[in-house]
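Section 5: illustrative case.
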């Protein structure tokens, strides 16, 4: 999930922006709608359409066999978040020892570099200086590992929050397959929208 989609899943109380709306014909009558953040699900007297005006998915009511609503928490997201935090703790823990080791090793090369520079020719000095500079660069990278670690901690906490917060998922079963749309959290409005779809599905007539 990209950051735009993530942010649009949570509507603030003072947010008065109109959610993206799918295109409808002039003869369609809107029965119910459910904002999904970056998209809107709309039930009309003819179909169910989910989209933002540019990318849309539409199902005629006569093609829909069933609608199911469920609330789910993602253990996969929680596990990924925990893994991010575990890796972050390792990076933070090894940062200082690794930086100290690399700096000390580079410092130990200094006497050898000076001897090579004093020696006639001193062809090896240039290579040793390059190695020393490389070690200093690696030490700088090791010193920056805690920053990466804290970034991973934040991302891990976000993953855990999303997994624990859960989402309400609506699944539409149609002849062409299944289609799902969801909203973060336990959304009663989305469940009501799904029930409204069920009320307007075609009911087979009894033979006779």
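Designed sequence:
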């Amino acid at each position: 999930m990209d950051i735009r989609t993530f942010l649009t899943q949570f509507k603030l109380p003072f947010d008065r922006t109109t959610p993206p709306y799918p295109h409808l014909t002039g003869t369609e009558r809107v029965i119910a709608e459910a904002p999904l953040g970056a998209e809107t699900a709309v039930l009309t007297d003819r179909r169910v359409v989910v989209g933002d005006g540019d990318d849309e998915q539409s199902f005629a009511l006569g093609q829909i066999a069933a609608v199911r609503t469920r609330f789910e928490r993602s253990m996969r997201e929680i596990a990924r978040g925990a893994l991010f935090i575990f890796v972050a703790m390792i990076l933070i823990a090894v940062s200082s020892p690794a930086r100290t080791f690399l700096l000390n090793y580079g410092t130990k090369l200094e006497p050898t570099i000076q001897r090579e520079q004093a020696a006639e020719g001193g062809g090896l000095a240039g290579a040793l200086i390059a190695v020393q500079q490389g070690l200093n660069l690696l030490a700088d990278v090791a010193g920056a590992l805690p920053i990466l670690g804290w970034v991973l901690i934040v991302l891990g906490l976000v993953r855990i929050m999303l997994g624990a917060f859960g989402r309400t998922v609506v699944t539409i079963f149609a002849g062409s397959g299944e289609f799902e749309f969801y909203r973060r959290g336990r959304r009663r409005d989305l469940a009501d929208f799904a029930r409204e779809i069920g009320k307007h599905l075609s009911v087979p007539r009894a033979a006779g």
